[in-house]
Amino acid sequence: SLTGKEATFGTSAHEGTALAIEEINAAGGVLGKQLELLTEDNQTKAGETANAVNKLISKDGVVAILGEVASSRSMEAAPICQQNKIPMITPASTNPTVTQEGDYIFRVCFTDTFQGAALANFATGTLNAKKVAVLTDVKSDYSKGLAKSFKEKYTASGGKLGIELDFNGGDKDFKGQLTAIKGDAPDAIFLPGYYNDVALICIQAKQLGITVPIFGGDGWESESLLTIGKESMNGNYFSTHCSVEQGTPEMVAFVEGYKKKYNGKVPDAMAVLGYDSAKVLADAIKRAGSTDSAKVRDAIAATKDFSGASGKFSLNENRDAVKALVFIKIENEKFNYTAT
Ligand code: PHE
User: Fold this and answer.
1) CA–CA separation, 26 and 234 (whole Å)
2) What is the chain's percent helix, strand, coil content, to nearest 5?
3) Half-sphere exposure of 308 toward its Cβ, with a 13 Å CA cutoff?
4) Distance 155 CA to ligand 1 centre (A)
5) How far apart are CA 124 and CA 197, in angstroms?
6) Which residue's alpha carbon is at the smallest distance from atom 5 of ligand 1?
7) Rounded to whole angstroms, how far apart are CA atoms 178 and 173?
């Protein structure tokens, strides 16, 4: 998604991937050959991912697919990759069903089963919220899945669900839902959405006098959350994949390389994951000793203790990465890393 509604997702992931490919090629490539990165833009539009993936596989003959970021769009790509036996690694799609499509589908991020549980612990522990209202984007598989896993874990640990309401990603007026939420008087509001909708919702919540914390997951992470939402974002929280402040040697080296290539731009989590997805693929092709897709598939599946920029991780039997999660608090219109 290099253009359209979620353009920052695709742009960041792609910048990370391009940096990784450049580094790999500068170090001699893989199996004595240079890697070639082919890029398609689905414009954040439903249906376009399928067209792009079909073209990349049938016309361009790619060895593997890296992408998509958003779960709904990865779920368009996955059946095509599986059917054609072309390994696919999504950098950032967290909905559990994405990799369940088949044995050729992988991710280098955690799933929302894990993220939802972590957010439930955060709500009961850190926020001490006895009652949480939930506002879900029914157009997004990511939002629906994360809401579900959060609610399961939160209620299992004794939390009480307040009012539960829906919106459609791209809506502009959320006052009806927010007025109802205010009337329900929850201790906090769980909002598993994407940054552009989240920013508008937080602005309108402040206008309606809602003061309880609003919190969400990795879909919040974009510099645009702050440029749109400004001071209305302060006091809110989200979980995400990593922080550029986490200080591991791999992260420090990545941030340095990224800033150098992209005129001082500070990378976000998707840039880190886009980078790691390409590094995992290159490592697998090396270990496979071939670009034969079944061999590359087996090698990706065997990825263990990989030292990525996002952290150290292994892929489990479900082809999902097992790794840490970080919490960010928004203060003074800045993302502050609070805990891993
Ligand atoms: N996890 C989101 C999804 O599955 C995508 C995303 C990843 C958004 C990382 C922001 C940061 O749709």
Assistant:
1) 42
2) 45, 15, 35
3) 36
4) 24
5) 25
6) 70
7) 10
Rounded to a whole number, what is the largest CA-CA distance in the chain? 65
The owner of tokens 């299992």 is 156
Three-state SS string over 234-278 comes to CCCEEEECCCCCCCCHHHHHHHHHHHHHCCCCCCCHHHHHHHHHH
Give the integer Cα–Cα distance in Å for 134 and 184: 11
pLDDT tens by residue, 37-53: 999 999 999 999 999 99
Edge-to-edge strand ranges of the sheet holding 214-216: 160-167, 131-137, 188-190, 214-216, 237-240, 326-331, 334-339
Q: How far is the CA of 170 from the centre of ligand 1 (A)?
A: 16
Task: Give the Å distances, CA to CA, from 216 to 2, 213, 311.
Answer: 23, 10, 22
List pLDDT tens digits, range 130-170.
999 999 999 999 999 999 999 999 999 999 999 999 999 99
Contacting residues for 58 by C-beta, under 8 A, at least 6 apart: none
Amino acid identity of residue 283, one-letter, is D
- Write out pLDDT tens, residues 9-43: 999 999 999 999 999 999 999 999 999 999 999 99
Q: What is the pLDDT of residues 89-99, one digit of tens each?
A: 999 999 999 99
- Residues touching ligand 1 (Cβ under 6 Å) are 9, 69-71, 92-95, 142, 218-219, 221, 269-270
Q: What is the pLDDT of residues 229-256, one digit of tens each?
A: 999 999 999 999 999 888 899 999 999 9
